[in-house]
Each structure stands twice: as C-alpha cells, then as structure tokens.
Amino acid sequence: MTETIGRRERKKAQTRQALADAALSLFLERGFDQVGVKDVAEAADVSLTTLFKHFPSKEALLFDQDADIEAALIAAVHDRPAGWSIPRALGEHILRSTTSSQTPEMAAFMRLIQDTPALQEYGRRMWMRHETALAHAIAQETSAPADDVTCAALARFTLDSRDLIHRSPDPRQATDQIITLLESGWPGTTTSGPR
After folding, report:
1. Does residue 130 share a domain with residue 83?
2. Do 21 and 70 reside in the same domain of the chain?
3. Residue 192 placed within a domain
4. 126 neighbors 193 (Cβ within 8 angstroms)
5. 109 and 171 share a domain?
6. Same domain, residue pair 25 and 92
C-alpha cells in the first residue's frame, strides 16, 4: 500500500513539474499574454482538468515553489548564525535570493515577471502570503505571543523590503540600510514639524 501511495505522489509531482516547465518555456518563448492554459496543457501532454488540479490559475504555473520559499524564510529566522539579529538574518536571506537570480535562466524569468503586470501583482501577493508564517516564526524565536503586532510588523516590513532591494542599483547597500533601520528603529528628526 505504501509503495502505491509513493508511486501516486511521485506521478503527481512529475506532472506538476512537467506543467511548470512547459509553462515557463512557452511564456519565455512567446510571452505570458500570448500563451493560454490550453497551450501549456498540450505541451505537458495533460488535460486542462489535470492542469487545474495542480494549478488554480495561469499565473500560478510560474510560482510553484511557494512552500519552499516559506520554509526558507522560516529557516532564516530559526537557523540564523550566532550573534545575528532576526532582521540581519532575513535581510541577508533576501539579498542572497536576489543575487542568486543572476543566472541567465533566472534573469530571463525575472524579466518575464517584471514585464508582465499580472505576474508582478500575483508574485507580490504570493510573496506577502508568507507574512503570517514569518510573524509566527519571529514570535516563537523571541518568546512573544503568536499575535504580537511587533512581530507582524517586522515580518511585513522585511517582506516588503524585497522590492526595494531588487530595484536598488546597489542591493548590498540597500540591504544594509534596511537592516540598520529594522534593528535600530527610525532615528527621528530634530525638526518640529510643518509650520
């Protein structure tokens, strides 16, 4: 029985990967808006019903590593090097994921996302879905209550910082500045406000 379940799960994983690979190949070749889900299903040699069993939308075909991304964020908190703050660990994790996208394949994928507004928005929503899990990991690591608003704020600000790091001409400098802000807080100003 276990062997049958294992085989079934492997087959599902293979089908899912075939769909994701076919989608990426077609989207890079023709552009996201020029490819339909039927084209992807045909390229992967599956039915439309099978495609939608694995992916709820056309955009989801490109964002198939959601569980891995969340696990890596949580690991960045729990497995950080000794002496590193949580903001430092998360900032460095985001920087690594930004700079690891320098391979030609990843650069092409990132261009596809940046050139397609629907994918930009979907990718941002998918990324921000990790906020609750990340906030819980931060709360657990700091012995704060699970619903602690400061942990939620740190999770949100850290996740939001990814866009700033991606767009910066100097991602290392941007990361360091963001980490400093998150570790130390806003330095404030000496002005008394509007006159």
Report:
1. yes
2. no
3. no
4. no
5. yes
6. no
Give the Cα separation of 109 and 62 in Å (integer): 9
Closest CA to 181 of 75, 88, 62: 88
Q: Where are the beta strands (DSSP E) in 17-116?
A: none
pLDDT digits (tens, 9 = 90+) for 66-94: 788 899 999 999 999 999 999 999 999 99
Residue 73: predicted pLDDT: 95
Report, as ranges of residue numbers, the positions in the chain whose pLDDT lies below 70. 1-5, 100-102, 188-195
Q: Which amino acid is at 77?
A: V
Residue range of the domain that includes 98: 66-184
